[in-house]
Design goal:
416 residues, alpha/beta, 7-stranded mixed beta sheet, 14 helices, 40% helix, 12% strand, DUF4350 domain-containing protein, membrane, transmembrane helix, transmembrane
């Protein structure tokens, strides 16, 4: 079915003589019902992404305020007599000093050995041995209290064996005859469980195997090992008999050498400091291995390298003419009854071709295009707006009429 070329039918099936109300008369700019440029503008990009930008700015602002307003605290140091955090032991150290016990905080085995040579017997409290020489610590005479399964425990307490299964840290009863534990009663004990030598006091038993406190006498004094030092921290000290147990184990009246991790750990000794360079420590064939690897990489780079040459025209297996492509797409639109998609394509193409001819800038609004086209061709502005920005055609006949009317306007603009 063909439609008259003179535009006797308006888009949508209405007669051209009847008034057609378009959305362009209500909403300024490009109407949503018609074709519009798909390239995003600055305004559309801001409208679509402003919520995400505002939420991101809010999150950043909250994070910055949290950092600025948060109290500035140093890193927590577990079982440190100078640390006031929940993991520190400042409260226990103050209680001991109030009972007249001298507390000397050291961070190396050398400092602990120097204190042992000045004055009488002392108690060595070991809370960390990562940067300390355990053999130098084991050579210090006197009583010692070791907290946890520390590196070097075999040298500090060779008679104690560690139980593989750990004990959950909780409130436990002593169940032993050790006076310090019996006087304290229940305490927050757990962590590593141990087995001691014959005659050792085994307290605070684990539910499976071993005990979390072992105390025994040796030639140089008394050695006590506890599986966990939580009962000595500022957080747990007021609970159960934790304070009494800690005071009974440490506050024996002797000065205490409290060994902690160094504030500034020393740098590990490098191989060069022993008179050997890095090349001296390498096997003899490493140098030739590196050379062979470099040669292999170079050969692979030359083999797999790609150099750009001149552009080569590739012969296509099938040459399809443009007219056939357009015809095939039109048949697809017709088979799927995609009249709206086809109308949008026709309208977008017409607007793109007429905009520069009308002296308008790219992306001009719908009102500007309609007014300029009506003034140039003498057509009614309502009919022009309905053709360019109206609703989709109701049937195939209306789509054909729309195509004819758009072609008519293009020819009129070209002839003027």
């Amino acid at each position: 079915m063909s439609a008259p070329v003179d535009g006797s039918l308006a888009p949508g099936g209405a007669a051209l003589g009847e008034p057609v109300v378009t959305r362009d008369e209500v909403v300024p700019g490009d109407p949503p019902g018609g074709s519009a440029p798909t390239s995003p503008t600055l305004r559309s990009t801001w409208r679509s992404g402003r919520l995400i930008v505002l939420l991101g700015a809010l999150v950043v602002l909250i994070a910055v305020l949290g950092v600025l307003l948060a109290p500035q605290r140093g890193p927590s140091r577990a079982l440190d007599p100078a640390d006031t955090s929940l993991a520190g032991s400042r409260a226990l150290a103050e209680l001991l000093r109030a009972r007249g016990v001298q507390i000397d905080r050291v961070d190396s085995a050398e400092a602990a050995a120097r204190l042992a040579t000045t004055g009488g017997p002392r108690l060595l409290l070991v809370t960390d041995t990562v940067y300390a020489d355990e053999y130098a610590l084991a050579a210090i005479p006197g009583d010692r209290l070791i907290v946890g399964d520390l590196p070097g425990l075999a040298a500090l307490a060779p008679e104690v064996r560690t139980v593989p299964e750990a004990a959950r840290t909780r409130s436990r009863e002593p169940e032993c005859a050790l006076p310090a534990a019996r006087a304290a009663g229940s305490a927050y004990m757990g962590g590593t469980a141990f087995e001691g030598p014959p005659g050792a006091a085994l307290c605070y038993p684990s539910t499976t195997e071993g005990h979390t406190l072992v105390s025994y006498s040796r030639a140089g004094g008394t050695t006590t090992v506890v599986g966990d030092g939580s009962f000595m921290t500022n957080l747990r000290l007021p609970e159960d008999g934790n304070a009494a147990l800690a005071l009974n184990l440490i506050g024996t009246g002797r000065p205490v050498t409290w060994l902690v991790r160094p504030d500034n750990p020393p740098v590990a000794e490098l191989p060069g400091e022993r008179g050997q360079s890095l090349s001296d420590l390498m096997p003899d064939n490493v140098r030739w291995t590196v050379y062979m690897a470099l040669i292999a990489v170079a050969v692979t780079a030359l083999w797999r390298g790609r150099r750009l040459g001149p552009v080569v025209t590739e012969r296509l297996p099938v040459v399809v003419r443009a007219a056939e492509t357009i015809e095939g797409r039109g048949r697809l639109y017709r088979a799927r009854r995609a009249r709206q998609r086809a109308a949008e394509a026709l309208r977008a193409g017409t607007i793109d071709r007429l905009t520069p001819r009308l002296g308008l800038a790219t992306g001009a609004g719908g009102r500007e295009v309609v007014a300029a086209l009506a003034a140039r061709t003498g057509q009614d502005a309502h009919r022009v707006g309905a053709a360019l920005y109206g609703p989709p055609p109701a049937d195939d006949a209306a789509l054909v009429a729309l195509a004819a009317y758009l072609d008519l306007m293009e020819r009129q603009v070209s002839e003027l």
